[in-house]
Specification:
By secondary structure, this protein is mostly helical. It has a domain at 27-267. It has 16 helices and 2 strands. The chain has a two-stranded antiparallel sheet. It is globular.
Length: 345
């Protein structure tokens, strides 16, 4: 007596059934395209600011808004999407500013050379610091980056022959095209506008790439990401370096737009304030840094008449925003829609 072989389940002959599973992007192509269109439309609207601004002061605020946007967006990439809280982001900002400024003042190099040099130096510093620091988690990582910021601010103040010390770095030249110097707020605006657009487009493309999906997976569950083959440490280190390089670009723009740099601008308190701006704007939301940069730029100007109470009023306003909308200002519309849907149901 012979046993008949067990019948196997029929296999589909279609290519779809035979193909292995593919990890698809978190967003459909149409949604990504609409996000790019929305970004371009917003930046085209910003381009008319120098023509409608009542005076050069408002154009200078627009320049600082775009520089602050690059800075806060780079931190949002690390903190909001990567889940790594850094209290030393202002140090990379300062490193980029002093690197580009010193190359110009002490060595006579063009600001156009200082701009990529600032990004490279800030990224290299992040690589050296990140290799040991990113093995820490939570509070310990924050403390490590805080120490880095404190050390760098001391160096900015003590290396007087190089940085100018507490008096600041003087004599920095603006960007120029030949003899056409970008030495006014109106002339500087197109350059700052273009660089900020490129940075925001780069962040948007990165978030929709394989690295961006890996970054979100690591932030959600690091052990789970390792289990599916994602190198969590390498992913965090890569984003840490990219974030620092973007901060270096912001620093280079800052020093050549203002033609000055001072250690106070890159202090630990500013690093903490940048973290708060990410949270207020909307941590982990693409448009969050726009609102964070707007508050970071405008509110101190509005509170100039209340200098003694400026910090208290600033803190109170931030507290109200975070209580009213824990997901930040950019997350407020989605929160209102959810509440409205719950009421209807």
């Amino acid at each position: 007596m012979t046993l008949a072989p067990a019948k196997s389940a029929p296999l589909s002959s279609t290519p779809e059934a035979a193909a292995p599973a593919v990890i698809r992007p978190l967003r459909p192509t149409a949604t990504r395209s609409s996000e790019h269109r929305r970004l371009l439309l917003v930046w085209l609207a910003l381009l008319i600011l120098p023509f409608v601004a009542p005076n050069a002061y408002f154009v200078s605020l627009a320049n600082m808004f775009l520089i602050n946007l690059i800075l806060i967006a780079s931190l949002n990439l690390l903190m909001g999407y990567g889940g790594q809280i850094s209290l030393g982001h202002a140090a990379f900002y300062g490193l980029g500013a002093y690197a580009s400024g010193v190359l110009n003042v002490k060595f006579g190099l063009s600001p156009w050379i200082g701009l990529p040099a600032a990004a490279i130096l800030a990224g290299l510093a992040a690589l050296i610091i990140g290799i040991p620091a990113l093995r820490l988690r939570g509070l310990y990582l924050s403390m490590a980056t805080l120490g880095w910021n404190a050390i760098l601010v001391v160096l900015f103040g003590r290396l007087i022959d190089i940085t100018g010390g507490p008096n600041g770095l003087l004599g920095v030249k603006p960007f120029a095209f030949g003899r056409f110097a970008l030495n006014s707020d109106v002339r500087q605006f197109p350059l700052v506008w273009l660089v900020s657009l490129v940075v925001m487009l780069a962040i948007l493309n990165l978030l929709n790439s394989r690295i961006g999906r890996a970054l979100r997976a690591v932030a959600t569950n690091e052990l789970g990401a390792d289990a599916v083959g994602i190198d969590s440490f390498r992913t965090k280190l890569l984003v840490f370096v990219l974030s620092a390089a973007m901060a270096g670009i912001a620093g280079s723009l800052y020093v050549h737009v203002n033609q000055f740099a001072s250690p106070e601008t890159f202090s630990v308190s500013n690093s903490i304030l940048l973290v708060v701006m990410v949270a207020i704007g909307g941590s982990g939301l693409f448009w969050g840094p726009v609102f964070g940069a707007l508050i970071y730029t405008a509110v101190p100007q509005l509170l100039l008449d209340y200098e003694d109470a400026e910090l208290m009023l600033f803190g109170l306003a931030m507290l109200v925003v975070l209580i009213a909308s824990p997901s930040g200002i950019a997350g407020l519309p989605a929160m209102l829609r959810r509440r409205l849907a719950r009421r209807r149901s």
